[in-house]
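Reopening closed ticket. The problem is back. First fold of the pair:
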Amino acid sequence: MARTGLSRFGQQLLPVLYQHRLLATGQLHRLLTPHTARPVYLLRQLGQLRELGLAESADRRTSRMGRCEQLWYITPLGCEVVEAGGEIQPRAYRITPKAAASPLQEHTLAVGDTGIAFCEWARRYGDDCGPLDWEPELAHRVRDGDSRLGDDAFLVPDAVLRYTREQDGRRQMMTFFLEIDRATMEVARLGRKLSTYARYGTYIPQPPGRRHRTGTREAWRERYPAFPRLLIVLSGASDAVLERRIDDLRALAAADSRITAGGHLRAGVTTIGLLAEHGPFAPVVTPVLGDPKPTDVRLAAMSEVPAGR
């Protein structure tokens, strides 16, 4: 990262704000300073970033117990500093003060909670999943043609998360598409997005101008060593409501031939409460297809990619 007079911790903090767009003080504490009882040093460093014009904060719209919570985001100057360092993949998106204070903040924070849950359990397990191991809203093309004709040209997961599991002397690399549902989306819409994930699994891009199909390799193989698992994480309602949403989603998936065909889509659904309390490798995930018996995020047998030793 370019020299800015920041401490080593400040230089670690700035890329996290860059990548995750908006994080609460408590989330940053869990992610970066979990060894401390209170985020005193973290707040000092955030204050320094703000004084330098590299970060700014907004108030959370719905505070807990009448208290206001600060939400932190990077400024355009902070983005320039991170990108000049060349250590993180540049992103075109820039969060604005208006966006940071908008109703969308709760969804962004829910994505952060999911990634942080994976990180916290990785520490307990001795696995690898750190603050920069999930990326929000990566676009994946799912059809040929002019992308200006509609949003259905791209699949945009809420995040793509990478996790390396240590078990029985072996290392396994896993990639997840994350979809976060705060019980504000119609289940039918979530079902349609499931169908889009299935379409991405079979999409073979064609060279421009070709009238006949000539491509032979699925697009996902250019980005991933194995087709990522899909994990849908529910929150924002009572357990009874979330259980009904799981049942409805399973029914929609079973009726969609695109989802059931091929067998490449491994999708499961859980709640943020179960994921945070029990961890991703406890039986907290209900498969979207087939037997509803809870399993873990690996979603049954699937070829894994050995990691380097």
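Second fold of the pair, where the issue appears:
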Amino acid sequence: MSTPSPLPACVLACAWYDGDGQRQDLSLEEVGQRIAGQAPGFAWIGLYEPAHEILARLQAALGLHPLAVEDAGKAHQRPKVEAYGDTLFLAAHTAQMDGGRIAYGETHAFLGRRFLLTVRHGASLSYAPVRARLEREPELLRPGPAMALYGVLDFIVDNYAPIVDAHRDTLHALERDIFSDTYRREIVVRLYDLKRELTNMRVSVSPLQDVLAQLVRSQAAQGQLVPEDVRLYLRDVHDHVVRINDAIDSLRDMLGTALSVNLSMVTLAQGETVKRLGAWAALLAAPTLVTSWYGMNFAHMPELAPRWAYPALAAGVGLVCVVLYRLFKRARWL
């Protein structure tokens, strides 16, 4: 058996899986011949940000629709699944943590009766672990390329879960600071950043529910591409993505509530401070009002002549201050 010619750098894997799920590496030139042959099996090609020439070669070899190939050559596609004759084109968003932030990428997949072509863009983890997992259990590959597509979609959805868990842990770590009486700008900024990241993630996760639902309910020509036994696996992935989407919605609600609670706590704390300042200002205003009378230049002022006038005045001012203090204390202003 001849050794396949070296693959271009953007072609990460190109293999043929026979009827028993056993792998044989191919060159791009051999793909079309194998698919046109009568031997049972399918081709699985993986690309990462491919050049236009590579996509054009595979378009000719696999009979892909030019509109779908044009979409696969560009990123910024919404999650979707579309039928082009006897081929399904699927787009999904991928996500992974990168330096504390969520980095997004895209995976475009072409599913035919005898091939699966995956095209990755941006922040997208390699699907080599998916291949390794399926190759360890080759009987899983007997249903054909739809099972390989299941492995890819399951891998994408599974990578959402650690991101959601990390954001949940971050929210729990911030709870003590959220209920603090002191205002800390960095807490509000962090809460806002978390909510924004989860909102962006929901834009990627939520449409994937419809994509998987269409694959599970596929009929006619699509039903031939996605056998009934593979739909059971896809239904499980659909359940996972629904659960993750619900978790994202719950976290977004909790973050929104946390922002409101934090701002309310800060407002209440500021109100308490204003009340204390007002109470102390009132305590200072009473003796200031009384003593200010004696700073006026009048010849006849009350209680200037008696010897006990000054102590009586000081006692009276002290009594007024004590009464005000008790009143403010009872009203919990102090």
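Update: turned out to be a display glitch only; the data is intact. DSSP finds nine helices and seven strands in the chain. The chain has a mean pLDDT of 83. Please close again.
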